[in-house]
Specification:
143 residues, mainly alpha, 5 helices
């Protein structure tokens, strides 16, 4: 059995759908805790209230983009950008602060910051691969 580009793209999309739905719902279910946790990060304290609604809202918007086939590439670009921002945030947090609770929610909260950094780098790579596969597939269809 040969796995096609489309199959890889579907798997990547499914992984992002699960990740973003899970993360957004976990943040919204325990919103007060999420606000308190991001408020402990020096970088985010002044804007914790706004960020606490913006992040899960953006995650759910990305889910919508990923679910609509003609918007999937946009969703993958947003996924890449958001995962890059989260990865940068973790890297900064690791260098500037000794202890900040993870504000990811659910199972992801159980990871340490270094494990989370590796996890995020993996998802950045997946988003990049998804973008590449989509563009490659679009090029093939144009030819």
């Amino acid at each position: 059995m040969r796995i096609t580009r489309t199959t890889y793209l579907e798997i990547i999309t499914l992984l992002f759908l699960v990740l973003f739905v899970y993360a957004a719902v976990a943040k919204l279910i325990d919103h007060e805790r999420f606000v308190a946790q991001i408020g402990q990060a020096r970088l985010l304290t002044p804007i914790a209230g706004i960020v606490s609604w913006f992040i899960p809202g953006l995650e759910l918007l990305i889910v919508v983009f990923l679910l609509i086939p003609r918007m999937r590439l946009t969703g993958l670009y947003f996924s890449f950008g958001l995962m890059m921002m989260f990865t940068l945030y973790i890297a900064i947090t690791l260098t500037l602060q000794e202890h900040v609770p993870c504000s990811c929610g659910g199972v992801l909260e159980k990871m340490g910051w270094k494990e989370h950094l590796v996890f995020n780098i993996g998802f950045v790579a997946l988003a990049f691969a998804g973008i590449w596969l989509t563009l490659k597939t679009l090029d093939t269809k144009k030819s």
